[in-house]
Hints:
The chain is mostly helical. It has ten helices and four strands.
Amino acid sequence: MAEPITDDKSGETPAEKKVKLWDFPVRLFHWALVAAIITSWWTNQQVMIDLHAIAGYTILALVLFRIIWGFVGSSNARFSSFLTGPKRVLGYASKVPKGSVAELTYAGHNPAGGWMVVVLLVLVGIQAVSGLFASEDTFLFFDGPLVAYASSDVARIMNWIHHTNINLIYVAVGLHVFAALFYLVVKRENLIGAMVTGVRKVPAELATSFQTIRFKSPVLGIAILAICGVIVWGIVTLARSG
């Protein structure tokens, strides 16, 4: 079979174009969250509580940033651009098994992927917040920085949430990874690479829809992320010294 004719400089075929998809703040958030979740899991296994706590604080700052960026960030990073009703989600899901690339390609998160973003944000946010109030002796009598401001009943509930919710995170992360691999292997769509480089190849007829994405300055995103980090650090520091 003859190889498709490509543009030597761009690697494009006549039927596809390279388009900018994800801004730097979204990509930084995504991979920083992956690293923080892995670190949190590993330090939990190794009973490295100080690093475990730092990973949790990092996750909290990242979640806070993504919520803000979901309102003021690039147009396809905003919640309003990818959160849809159940009818569109189910309609998209029905197309996935046999749908073409053109049918499944969006200038951002697809309807199902958009809700997965929200689910993951909620779950990891709950995990990070519950850790602030947790108090237990399995971690060398570790107390979260805000446990002194909570009753014993609240601390006990937060412990239960912290130990239970992590299982939901494992399920959600597993589904997320499975979906990415499904698109890569079955649909031949490298969504993982697009989240690394910010660029994706799409059918040429869809390229114009990506030109409508309004990208915000990465400096703004980094500044917001830094502020979120300072806020979380300030809360933890004040609580520890109070």
